[in-house]
Amino acid sequence: MSPRSASVNEELRRRSRERLLQAAVELVGERGYDATTLGDIADRAGSARGLVSYYFPGKRQLVQSAVHRLMHRTLEEALEREPRTEDGRERMARAIDAILGLARDRPVLMRQHMAGILQAEGFMQCPEQRRLAELLREVCVRHGSADPDTDYPMLRALLMGAVYAALVPGVPMPVPVLRAELFKRYRLDREQGVPPDAEAVSGGTCDMDLSRYFATGSPPDCSEGRPDPSAQSK
To answer: Has residue 195 got a pLDDT over 60?
Structure first.
């Protein structure tokens, strides 16, 4: 049999990595960080356990990448939903609501994410984080920033601070209060984005099916090559 092409191998690697990211988000959200092992993540993803270390240096890096992917795709979805708009103020409102919505709808996952950032390893750069950063920076530009290199880090800090404040055990601040403060800072109208009363009427946005954020598509035809390493026995 002829070997698989480089493009097929690359696609298989991408899909294996996507499955691991999705499994990490699901399991940490269900069980918490400490109760989730790399073996658990590999099993949920249907991957060989050795593949986890091939793609990620460790569990902390994997979980941060997974949450950054979820944040990026959640933000992207909010910005592109109908009716689509190029209005900078509306896009800023949607961005704020998207990130605060994750704190509200996925508290276990986001609390573990914030705790991980405060560990010794700190904030880790990864492709998922860079995509999230690019999108948030674009939000600042569309909002009218004259200095996005300064305004983007401030927006990131404010959003991280708001998520942290919403999730502090024992003394959490209500998401609507945090939203109002951020909207005031960026001179947004309460009716922009997804107002809290609109969320209540619609029943919230939390969707337990995360597959659309980690789409892998149908598997390529591997019949002419070696077996997919992600499908090997664990």
So the answer is: yes
Whether 123 and 117 have beta carbons less than 8 Å apart is answered as yes
- Cα–Cα nearest to 192, from 73, 97, 101: 97
Looking at residue 224, the DSSP 8-state letter turns out to be T
Give the pLDDT confidence of 58-98 residue by residue, as tens digits.
999 999 999 999 999 999 999 999 999 999 999 999 999 99
Say which amino acid occupies 79: L
CB 22 within 8 A of CB 215: no
**Token pair listed for 32:** 């918490």
Question: Coil, helix or strand for 216?
Answer: coil
Instruction: Give the contacts of 229 (CB within 8 A, at least 6 positions apart).
Output: 12, 16, 48, 51
CA distance 222 to 209: 28
Helix, strand, coil in percent for the chain, rounding step 5: 65, 0, 35
Q: Where are the alpha helices (DSSP H) in 36-126?
A: 38-45, 50-55, 59-80, 88-105, 107-117
pTM, full prediction: 0.82
